[in-house]
Amino acid sequence: MGCPQSELYFVFMNFDPQYEHLRANRTKQGAHELDMYLSRKHDELLASTLEPGSYKKKSSLVIVDGFAVEITEAQASLLRSAKGVRVVEKNQELA
Q: Which of 9, 11, 32, 94 would you call most buried, defined as having the most Cβ atoms within 10 angstroms of its Cβ?
């Protein structure tokens, strides 16, 4: 039996007042702080929910509190039930 195939998923988070506060600061320093905050927040969620080395985070999204990650369907189900996660959707290519 083969290994489950990883695919690209987008994970969107629930409302976060700290994200909204940092997003309101439109300075260069504010943008950097927002990038660092989201990257750390998303990395911590993945590390606390999934096995190390079993996923590959592609990017954190700043315009919305979310990120792209390569995971299996089973891992997507785990993330859907994680605290703070609003939506987990598989990437769909448009023809």
A: 11
For 24-92, the DSSP string reads: H--SHHHHHHHHHHHHHHHHHHHHHHS-TTS-EEEEEETTTTEEEEEE-HHHHHHHHTSTTEEEEEE--
The pTM (predicted TM-score) of the whole model is 0.91
Residue 93 — very low, low, confident or very high, per pLDDT cuts 50/70/90? confident
Q: Which of 94, 40, 28, 31 is nearest to 67 (CA)?
A: 40
Task: State the chain's mean pLDDT as an integer.
Answer: 95
